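[Discussion] Sanity-checking designs against the backbone

I'm trying to build intuition for which residues belong where. Below is a structure token string of 335 positions. I'd appreciate it if someone posts a full sequence so I can compare it with mine line by line.
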């Protein structure tokens, strides 16, 4: 049994290192120096500095070497790069191999979820075997062996169970789901909301403000997810509420960090200049807003994040705008 993990960022590397403890795992890195360091020193100094990886983990910068013969493929690149790597992988992945995306975003321009991009590119692939893994999984905490849980969503229950079995350890617990849409929308939208949570922290507001933001954020996340075909209860689970809480509360979240910096008066261009890691919320906000407009869903917090990112509003103005919206009933808009 061989697993290929495509993408050696912080999360792809963490997942690959966990898997390598129990199954032959090959990690593909875009950067040859990352592949070399993982293979020779069991470290990834570029994306996961200071973390000791499984010495059993193999690495390559050749996509074909990683993918050939793999019985499970995990796609660990950010949403905007899924199309590129999937296109290169297409000839090397058999149609019945489970392909699981770790990406939490929306493709710019097409507004497709990462699994939709994969299905489009791997056109003959069994659609039930294209899925997503999502949950409150900050890479550094998982890499440190702290207990954590996730959701593996694939429409094909046998494929979901196979991936689940590979991931389960005493420190990492995977639940299966058949709600690919819900899990993917949860992951994409929580990154947008995390930027808002960072702004709240950066403005020195306390727990009441943060809690109100997370709860009302969950309402708009669930509204969009249900309108796009997700199952309502998914949004109360790990890939919805669970991930939202972690990312809105942790200084390890890059999207949260972006929000704090915006509240400090820096522009998004300054904040992103020279960053190696990706803050998916920044690239996904316009797509999330377009999707919401397309299905007629109101997402006031995401709209304000979009206004601040575009430089049309300040974090203070965004909060003012949210607090002075028309009075309403709490649950009327949850559907
Ligand atoms: N970091 C986390 O804690 C975490 C947890 C769960 C999910 N995720 C999600 O997993 C995905 C990967 O995030 P990450 O944190 O591992 O990434 P990262 O920001 O640490 O690294 C960036 C990744 O993008 C790759 N990349 C850059 N340019 C590329 C290109 N042109 N083509 C292909 N790949 C390219 C890099 O090689 C690297 O693998 C994201 O969608 C993220 O939202 C991250």
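Best answer:
Here's mine. Compare freely.
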């Amino acid at each position: 049994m061989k697993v290929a993990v495509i993408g050696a960022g912080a999360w792809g590397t963490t997942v690959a290192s966990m898997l390598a403890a129990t199954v032959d795992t090959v990690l593909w890195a875009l950067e040859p120096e990352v592949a070399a360091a993982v293979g020779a020193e069991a470290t990834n100094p570029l994306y996961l500095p200071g973390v000791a990886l499984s010495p059993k983990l193999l690495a390559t910068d050749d996509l074909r070497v990683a993918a050939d013969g793999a019985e499970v493929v995990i796609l660990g690149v950010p949403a905007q790069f899924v199309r590129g790597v999937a296109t290169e992988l297409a000839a090397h992945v058999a149609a019945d191999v489970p392909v699981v995306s770790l990406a939490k975003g929306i493709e710019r321009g097409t507004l497709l979820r990462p699994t939709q991009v994969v299905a489009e590119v791997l056109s003959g692939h069994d659609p039930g075997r294209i899925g997503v893994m999502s949950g409150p999984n900050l890479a550094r905490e998982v890499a440190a062996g702290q207990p954590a849980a996730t959701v593996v969503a694939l429409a094909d229950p046998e494929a979901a169970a196979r991936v689940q079995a590979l991931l389960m350890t005493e420190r990492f617990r995977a639940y299966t789901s058949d709600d690919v849409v819900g899990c993917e929308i949860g992951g994409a939208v929580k990154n947008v909301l995390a930027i808002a949570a960072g702004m709240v922290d950066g403005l020195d507001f306390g727990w009441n403000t943060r809690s109100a933001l997370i709860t009302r954020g969950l309402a708009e996340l669930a509204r969009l997810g249900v309108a796009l075909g997700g199952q309502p209860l998914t949004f109360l689970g790990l890939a919805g509420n669970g991930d939202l809480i972690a990312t809105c509360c942790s200084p390890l979240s890059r999207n949260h960090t972006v929000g704090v910096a915006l509240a400090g008066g820096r522009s998004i261009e300054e904040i992103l200049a020279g960053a190696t890691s990706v803050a998916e919320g920044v690239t996904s906000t316009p797509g999330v807003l377009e999707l919401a407009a397309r299905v007629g869903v109101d997402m006031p917090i995401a709209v304000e994040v979009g206004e601040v990112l575009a430089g049309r509003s300040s974090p203070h103005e965004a909060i003012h705008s949210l607090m002075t919206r028309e009075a309403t009933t709490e649950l009327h808009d949850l559907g």
